[in-house]
Amino acid sequence: MFKKVLIANRGEIALRIHRACSEMDIETVMVHSTADADGMAVRLADESVCIGGPMAKDSYLNIPAILTAAAITGADAIHPGIGFLSENADFARMVEEHGFTFIGPTPEHIEQMGDKAVAKKTVKNLGLPVIEGSNGIVDTIAEGMLVAEEMGFPVLIKAVAGGGGKGMKIAETAEEFENSFKMASNEAKVSFGNGDVYIEKYLKAPRHIEVQIIADMHGNAVHLGERDCSIQRNHQKVIEEAPSPALTDAQRKAIGELAADTVRSMGYRGVGTIEFLYEDGQFYFLEMNTRLQVEHPITEIVTSIDLVREQIRVAAGEKLSFTQEEVKFRGHAFECRINAEDPETFAPSPGKITKYHPPGGFGIRIDSAIYEGYTVPQYYDSLIGKIIIRGSSREGCLMRMRRALRECVIDGIKTNLPLHARILAEEKFKQGDFDIHWLEKECLAKK
Ligand code: MV4
Question: pLDDT tens-digit profile of 408-420?
Fold first, then answer.
């Protein structure tokens, strides 16, 4: 097992990783920017190294500085966390070339899943259901038009380098196609330096359901069930839950086993998430994330498995500590993401937290690195914490989340706590009757 792990991240996820290491008797090195010197993750880590200025490019994306910090402190492994360098194949390769272990999959797997058209072909060949569309990249408008006419409108034009909705455009009709194609390709070129696109049939009102997998280096791969992440705004998840209220146990088992079989065939190792759109009882592969996810705690709640601990164990070459048979799903979990933002305009709201009283009691977990007196910096993502609830039933879990939200006090900055209260009071939410558009098109649309 590793003796020392360098954590190349910040905030709540850096703290989450430190906590897993600490319980495994692994020392931690927190690298941080000048803006994060007062962060809780830095305070709790065994060692810390300031690697650059506040802008991510100068610190959390500064590969030479991170590798140097690892060398100086004598770390064995580097955990990239979430975002930043976590899905950067070049970084993973450099980490290994410098003699450290990258806590994540191989650079080849990161690369393969990073190209959305390659990822789709790969998993389709291994038996995952995909959305009808072009066979890979479409080079010309004429070629795209043929594919679109063949399957019928509306279609979606997607960037192979895409993610988060960038470089993605709907063409409702043949008339719109040329313009949408150009817009998607140009946006992709500007955002990712790669204008390649592919085409899919547009699904009008799906749910976003993702399956958590984990694999070791010994050919073992298991699934840990699904998360329903349909409650989102602007491609940012707001509330997640496990299990999905839309699935039966049989569907869960079927899609989970399909996902585990897929990653086993790929020779994948580490944690990963296979995202699906789910509509009319059918699953369609969307993309695969080759990292830990923000919402991993709800999977931990319903499986009682410490995902980060297992992730570190498999990266060190150990076997998974459990079999698929031993994975038991129990109860329900919700996660509300707490953002430092205006609940009405969604504008970021950095600043000093003057009062902090987190909720507590039975069934409540708070993953956050904030404290009273802490100043939320302006340079990073607005996520400042997560309220994670366990309950024996979905209904009980929902009532407990509402109670937690009533208890929670964060003063000095604006947060989206009022937005969560509003969503949780909605009948459609209570019924589990929503799709990826419900929050924006129905819940937020009415005043
Ligand atoms: C889709 C889709 C409907 N039909 N593909 C958005 C982000 C990108 N990674 C994939 N996305 C979508 N792909 C087809 N063929 C709808 C979306 C989509 C979406 C997906 C998951 C979560 C939130 C979303 C919000 C808007 C659109």
Answer: 999 999 999 999 9
Distance 208 CA to ligand 1 centre (A): 8
Q: Is the dihedral of CA 59, 161, 171, 205 positive or negative?
A: negative
Query: How far, rounded to the nearest angstrom, does the alpha carbon of residue 305 sit from its chain's CA centroid?
Result: 18
Contact 328, 303 (CB under 8 A): yes
Q: How far is the CA of 105 from the centre of ligand 1 (A)?
A: 25
What is the reported pLDDT for 341? 98
Read off the amino acid at residue 261.
D
Cα of 378 from ligand 1 centre, angstroms: 29
Q: What residues form DSSP beta bridges with 335?
A: 240, 388
Whole-number Å distance between alpha carbons of 81 and 123: 25
Q: How far apart are CA 49 and CA 73, in angstroms?
A: 9
- Residue 436 Cα to ligand 1 midpoint, Å, equals 8
CATH 3.30.470.20 correct for 207-443: yes
Q: For a ligand 1 pocket test, name from 116, 155, 156 the mutation site with the most ligand atoms within 8 angstroms of its C-beta.
A: 156
Best substitution site from 130, 158, 200, 277 to test ligand 1's pocket, by max atoms within 8 Å of Cβ? 277
Q: In ligand 1, which atom is closest to the CA atom of 163?
A: 9
Torsion 68-69-70-75 (CA) sign: positive
Q: Is 171 in the pocket of ligand 1 (CB under 6 A)?
A: no
DSSP label of 181: H
Ligand 1: does its nearest atom lie under 6 Å from the Cβ of 199? no
Phi, psi of 124 (to 5 degrees): -65, -45
324 lines ligand 1 (CB under 6 A): no
Report the pLDDT value the prediction gives residue 383, as an integer from 0 to 100: 98
Q: Ligand 1, closest atom to CA 200?
A: 15
Which residues in the chain land under pLDDT 50? Answer: none
| Residues designated as active site | 291
C-alpha–C-alpha distance, residues 433 and 178, integer Å: 35
- Residue 24 · residue 316 · CB < 8 Å: no
User: In the prediction, which pLDDT does 376 show?
Assistant: 98
Domain range list for the chain: 4-103, 132-201, 207-443
The CATH number of the domain covering residues in 4-103: 3.40.50.20
What is the per-residue pLDDT for 37? 98
CATH level 2 (architecture), domain 132-201:
2-Layer Sandwich (3.30)
- Tell me the Ramachandran region of residue 25: left when phi exceeds 0, alpha when psi lies from -120 to 50, beta otherwise: left
